[in-house]
Amino acid sequence: MGIFYFIRHGQASFNEENYDQLSAIGFRQARHLGEHWVRIGLTFDTIYHGTLDRQRQTAETVIDCYEKFGRDIPTPKISSAFNECDATAVWNAYLPRLIREDPTLENQMDRIRTDPKIFQKVFSRLMFSWVSGKYEEDGGPRWKDFTKRVAEGVDDLGKKHGSGSRVAVFTSGGPVALAIRQALNISDEKTMALSWQVMNASVTRMEYKGDKIALAGFNDITHLEMAGDEALLTYR
Fold first, then answer.
1. Measured distance CA(214)–CA(130) in Å, rounded
2. What is the pTM of this model?
3. For 206-226, how does the pLDDT look when each residue is reduced to its tens digit (9 = 90+)?
């Protein structure tokens, strides 16, 4: 039996010009994870990260901790299978359709960037509409393409890495939830809701054998809780 460690990236730069960068808190979260793993002597046979900068920066920060203490750690491999969905493309493609269906949303657009509650309310409605496949015939990114990409990535890991291997995958909340979907066969709607519960720099473990995977641990943030700073416990 092998183990996949799916790590959500540290906090990104929400509301900044370039979201795809770790924030100062995000780098701290990643360092706490790396230092914790060094302390407990956790080793990996292979490490992956997606092509997104926030995923790469999280992986590199953890790897730096190992190297700082003279511990061996593999050079990471890159796989776009574990990239997050393109939420900006989904937003741009489907928000106009949502507003046409509910014109009252137009009045909330000016407050989207300044009021997190309004943003989450509108974003949730849009993402659940996306997951339902309601707008697929209109073009734009498709949920089923995203789920297929991640599922194929997880299957590929199982084929490449034999029993007894420890594989770390630095990814995002969406792919973590989709890996759980693959293990537990939960609905698309529950998968989307679950993705919002995946905390920054959290660790989700999957045991695998061939093409079979089982959930062994979800959303572990022990390394952040031990730091004693609530500012490190973030979802966005």
1. 27
2. 0.93
3. 999 878 899 999 999 999 999
